[in-house]
């Protein structure tokens, strides 16, 4: 088992098409609120704002 710490695996979903394109680690200590990043969405074929989701596919 991996050491259980402040880190949490979250998915990043495209805010436009809702497809989950990325999985990242989130540090609960440093991060407050919802994570959102601009990343390339292969479904939309352009850079879109991605938001975190705890529901991993
Ligand atoms: Zn998209």
UniProtKB/TrEMBL annotation:
Cellular-component GO terms for this entry: cytoplasm; ribonucleoprotein complex; ribosome
Protein name per its UniProtKB record: Large ribosomal subunit protein bL33
Single GO MF descriptor: structural constituent of ribosome
Family: Belongs to the bacterial ribosomal protein bL33 family.
UniProt source species: Candidatus Woesebacteria bacterium RIFCSPHIGHO2_02_FULL_39_13
Membrane-traversing stretches: none
GO biological process, one term: translation
Keywords attached to this entry: Ribonucleoprotein, Ribosomal protein
Gene3D superfamilies assigned to the protein according to its UniProt record, in alphabetical order: Ribosomal protein L33 (2.20.28.120)
InterPro entries: Ribosomal_bL33, Ribosomal_bL33_sf, Ribosomal_zn-bd
């Amino acid at each position: 088992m991996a050491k259980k710490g402040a880190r949490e695996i979250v998915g990043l979903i495209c805010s436009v098409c809702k497809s989950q394109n990325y999985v990242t680690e989130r540090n609960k200590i440093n991060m407050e609120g919802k994570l959102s990043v601009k990343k390339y969405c292969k479904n939309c074929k352009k850079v879109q704002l991605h938001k975190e989701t705890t529901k991993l596919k």
